[in-house]
C-alpha cells in the first residue's frame, strides 16, 4: 500500500513544483475537478456555471472567466481557452494559495504580486493592460447593484468618483481637457498597497470534505 501511495505522490511532483500545493491538496483538488467535469479530462464554463455556491455571486462571470483566461497560467499568453484540463485548473487555483511561514520575504512578495495581477486581469477584460472607466464601472455596478446594496445609477456614480480619485492621485497634474485612460497595473499595485489580501483570497466552492485544504470554505 505504501508503494501505491508513493507512486500517487510522484505523479504530482511536477504540479507540486509548479503550483506550491502539496500532493495531498492536489489529490483532493483532482477529486473536485472530476466532480465538476463528470470524470471528463476537461471542463468548460458551463461546468462552473452549475456550481450552486456561485449562483448568487455578483461577479460570477468574472470568476468563471478567470479560469479560462490564458493570462492566469503564469505565462505570457493572452486570450481565452474554450476548455481547460486539470493542470490549467490547478494553475488558476494556485493564485489563491496563502503564503506559508517558511516562505522568504522574496517569495511572499512574488505571491502577492501574482494575486494582484490575477485581480487586475479580472477587471481588465479586454486584455489591453489598462482598467478603463467602463471596465471598472461594470465591476462596481455588478458588485453593488446585483447584491441589492444600491441601484445602478448610484453604483455608477461611485465608480466614476473612485476613478476620478485614482486619476488625481496617479496623474496629479492632469489638465482639465486631458482624458485619464485608466488604471495600469502599476497604479493598481499602489491603490492596494496597504491592503492585506494574501490570506483573504479564497475559492469558496472547492470543498471536498477535507481538513487539508486551505482554499475551501473559511472555518471562521
**Beta fraction:** under 5%
Widest sheet: strand order? 1-2
Q: Number of helix segments?
A: 10
Looking at this structure, what is the CATH superfamily of the largest domain? EF-hand
CATH architecture group name of the largest domain = Orthogonal Bundle
Instruction: Look at the structure and give the mean pLDDT.
Output: 78
How many β-strands, per DSSP? 4
Count of the domains: 2
Quote the CATH topology of the largest domain.
Recoverin, domain 1
Largest sheet: 2 strands, antiparallel
Distance from N terminus to C terminus (CA atoms, Å) equals 36 Å
Please provide the ordered H/E string of secondary-structure elements. Answer: HHHEHHEHHEHHEH
The first-level CATH class of the largest domain is given as Mainly Alpha
Radius of gyration: 19 Å
Structural class by SSE content = mainly alpha
Describe this structure in words.
By secondary structure, the protein is mainly alpha-helical. It has 2 domains: 12-98 and 202-220, Orthogonal Bundle (Recoverin, domain 1), CATH 1.10.238; 100-198, Orthogonal Bundle (Recoverin, domain 1). Helices cover 50% and strands 5% of the residues. It has 10 helices and 4 strands. It has helices at 2-11, 13-19, 23-37, 45-49, 60-67, 86-93, 105-123, 133-145, 152-170, 185-191, and strands spanning 42-44, 83-85, 130-131, 183-184. The strands form 2 sheets. The chain has a two-stranded antiparallel ribbon with strand order 1-2. Residues 1-7 and 208-220 have low confidence and may be disordered. InterPro entries: CHP3, EF-hand-dom_pair, EF_Hand_1_Ca_BS, EF_hand_dom. Keywords: Calcium, Cell membrane, Cell projection, Cytoplasm, Differentiation, Lipoprotein, Membrane, Metal-binding, Myristate, Nucleus, Protein kinase inhibitor. Belongs to the calcineurin regulatory subunit family. CHP subfamily. Its main location: other.
Amino acid at each position: 500500500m505504501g508503494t501505491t501511495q508513493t507512486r500517487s505522490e510522484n505523479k504530482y511532483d511536477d504540479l507540486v513544483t509548479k503550483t506550491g500545493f502539496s500532493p495531498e491538496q492536489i489529490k483532493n483538488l483532482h477529486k473536485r475537478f472530476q466532480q465538476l467535469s463528470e470524470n471528463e479530462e476537461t471542463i468548460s464554463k458551463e461546468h462552473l456555471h452549475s456550481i450552486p455556491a456561485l449562483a448568487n455571486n455578483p461577479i460570477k462571470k468574472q470568476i468563471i472567466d478567470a479560469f479560462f483566461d490564458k493570462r492566469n497560467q503564469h505565462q505570457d499568453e493572452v486570450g481565452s481557452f474554450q476548455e481547460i484540463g486539470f493542470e490549467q485548473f490547478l494553475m488558476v487555483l494556485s493564485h489563491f494559495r496563502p503564503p506559508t511561514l517558511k516562505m522568504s520575504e522574496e517569495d511572499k512578495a512574488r505571491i502577492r504580486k501574482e494575486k494582484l495581477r490575477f485581480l487586475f486581469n479580472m477587471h481588465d477584460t479586454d486584455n489591453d493592460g489598462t482598467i478603463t472607466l467602463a471596465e471598472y464601472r461594470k465591476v462596481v455596478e455588478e458588485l453593488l447593484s446585483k447584491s441589492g446594496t444600491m441601484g445602478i445609477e448610484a453604483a455608477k456614480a461611485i465608480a466614476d468618483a473612485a476613478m476620478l480619485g485614482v486619476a488625481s492621485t496617479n496623474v496629479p497634474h492632469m489638465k482639465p481637457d486631458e482624458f485619464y485612460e485608466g488604471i495600469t497595473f502599476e497604479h493598481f499595485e499602489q491603490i492596494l498597497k496597504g491592503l492585506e489580501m494574501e490570506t483573504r483570497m479564497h475559492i469558496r466552492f472547492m470543498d471536498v470534505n477535507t481538513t487539508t485544504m486551505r482554499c475551501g470554505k473559511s472555518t471562521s
